[in-house]
Amino acid sequence: MTSMPEPERLSGDRPESLADLLGGRRGAVDATVPPVAFAIGWLAAGLWGGVVAAVLAGTAVAGWRWRRGDRPRSVLVGLLAVCVAALIALRTGRATDFFLVQLVSNAASGLAWMVSIAVRWPLLGVLVGAVLGQRSRWRRDPALLRAYGRGSWVWVATYLLRLAVFVPLWLGGQVVALVVARVALTWPLVAAALAVSWLVIRRSLPAGHPGLRHPVVLSDPDDVPAR
Hints:
This protein is mainly alpha-helical. It contains 8 helices and 2 strands, in the order ββαααααααα.
């Protein structure tokens, strides 16, 4: 009987984590700089001032990401989101509606993660599997499939938390408070979710499991009852 490979490790003999694989800081600049610019512009010159400041900030961030070598589609999506948010605010005349795209995005994301768990294609596994080039091999490891499902609930909780904070502030017209909440619930919350979901995954895997990079293919996961 061949022995299972040792868990993948990084420099300093430290176990590889989700933060190492997924790069949790990515996207934090996109999510925080334009809203902060919008609030400053809005306080200084009203709605049009906020919109102009946000679009300029979004363009600057897109240029920085482009020079850094990010994928063009990802860069354009980030800039498009800022432009759509600005157009919605101008259309409705309410500064808080600049954040409406964020509200809808978090609601849709939370729903998508819950559906992915229900159909046994947890998005955490999909993301990590894509990064590791595993395609769907991880799904044929019942222990890994179960662990990714449990870890994905942590990410569902982040979207629900954001909605619980954002919606009352949006309804109350609290522009500055929305910006503060947006910053506080971006990178810090993502960092916490990466750490907690990684802990959940590690504790869900049985002793001796070789880790995320080495799925143990035992059977068709659809034949294994979910727990």
